[in-house]
Design goal:
Shape of chain B: elongated
Radius of gyration of chain B: 16 Å
Radius of gyration of chain A: 12 Å
Order of helices and strands of chain A: EHEHHEEE
Strand order of the largest sheet of chain A: 2-1-5-3-4
CATH class of chain A: Alpha Beta
Strand content of chain A: 15-25%
Number of helices of chain B: 3
Number of strands of chain B: 10
Order of helices and strands of chain B: EHEEEEHEEEHEE
Helix content of chain B: 25-40%
Structural class of chain A: alpha+beta
Strand content of chain B: 35-45%
Number of domains of chain A: 1
Oligomer: heterodimer
Chain lengths: ~80, ~140
């Protein structure tokens, strides 16, 4: 199982804060997982296409070629606005 | 030292505790306190809700504080950030650095708040008279 998390405006757009799924067949890296999620429908396709999104695996920022491993926590979020 | 909390903080109390952690070694303490504005982009802000990523946010703040302590000779430092619903004039964030000399403390304090703003996972949502909106990141 992998844990997926979505924050802030992305969480609202997708109407999902977190979920657990099995790594889908044929998915090995972040880019593949993102493509698989985008097949869920228009909201997912457009929301996850936003180039400004950051992705963290196990709470470390990663790039699209990052490998997905069972047990990972993967989080998508918009640019940060704290302070 | 870092803290992420819903409750308010008192900048004066935090500075006094920073002073005591210096054990007499510091010659300067510099702090920054961030407040909720009542206006943003011309609109009245009624409430500001801060969301964060529990776990990753604390790690990010630790990393920022560690880097500041590596780059400047600090005798003590602290980062506090509030989360949850806040209102105009509420404290949001407190950053302070103590050092033997003022320049180190000034630079470290500025570095910590500037880096926090671009790297720590916090997101602001404003409640306005006409509805709510997520705050866009500053472009400058």
């Amino acid at each position: 199982m992998i844990q997926l998390r979505y924050f802030a405006s992305l969480r609202e757009t997708l109407e999902t804060g977190e979920e657990q799924i099995e790594i889908p067949d044929g998915v090995h890296d972040l880019a593949g997982l993102t493509r698989w999620l985008q097949e869920r429908g228009e909201a997912w396709t457009s929301a996850l296409a936003d180039k400004r999104l950051h992705v963290a695996i196990n709470q470390e920022i990663v790039k699209a070629d990052a490998i997905i491993t069972d047990g990972d926590e993967i989080a998508w979020f918009p640019p940060v606005t704290g302070g | 030292m870092i803290r992420v909390q819903t409750e308010n903080f008192d900048p004066g109390v935090e500075l006094e505790q920073l002073r005591q952690r210096n054990k007499g070694q510091a010659g300067a303490m510099v702090s920054f306190t961030g407040l909720v504005r009542d206006l943003n982009a011309g609109d009245t802000v009624m409430q500001m809700t801060l969301e964060h990523y529990p776990g990753m946010t604390e790690k990010a703040l630790h990393k920022i504080e560690l880097e500041a302590n590596e780059r400047w000779e600090l005798t003590a430092s602290i980062i506090i950030h509030r989360v949850g619903p806040l209102h105009p004039d509420d404290n949001i964030v407190f950053v302070a650095a103590a050092s033997r000399h003022r320049k180190q403390a000034f630079r470290a304090c500025e570095f910590m708040i500037d880096t926090l703003k671009t790297e720590a996972p916090f997101w602001k949502k404003e409640t306005l008279p006409g509805g709510a909106r997520w705050v866009e990141p500053a472009t400058n």
